[in-house]
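Try it yourself: sequence plus magnesium ion, in.
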Amino acid sequence: MAIERTFAMIKPDAVQRGLVGEIVGRFEKKGIKIVAMKLMQVPRELAEKHYEIHKGKPFYPPLIEYITSGPVVPMVLEGDDVITVARRMMGATNPKQGAPGEMRFDFGQQIGRNIIHGSDSPETAKFEIGLWFGEELAGYTKIDAAWLYE
Ligand code: DAT
Ligand code: MG
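Structure, out:
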């Protein structure tokens, strides 16, 4: 068992379309613990830091426009192998290449409006959690742990 933390962010299209509860509900039903969550407008500087690795790519300017176009819901999730598991729940980057059951497929249609972000590695998770929430994030015990983990 490898309990780890990852960073996820519900993007502006999903907030506007009223999908916050549906998305958070999927994580909750899976047994993934929400360690931190907020709703906020993204300052351009933060968006640029978050998507730094994509700077220079053709989709970078519209990506920054998209992510700063309305409030987002950033969160920190905790669970067994959650970096990989949460990414699988989100699905393929392009909803058209995904499969039913994946959030991006189920709720989205285009790569430029793909609903949700998730960290793709332990290094990225650490960087993104720090960027959006700061280094010190208190944990808490949740009563379902005894039934989720053997
Ligand atoms: P992911 O969000 O699955 O980690 P990524 O890190 O490669 O994907 O890209 C970040 C975001 O940029 C992605 O969610 C949507 C957008 N994007 C990526 N590739 C794109 C492309 N070829 N055309 C348009 N948007 C793209
Ligand atoms: Mg990525």
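One thing you can check immediately is this: The chain has one domain: 3-134.
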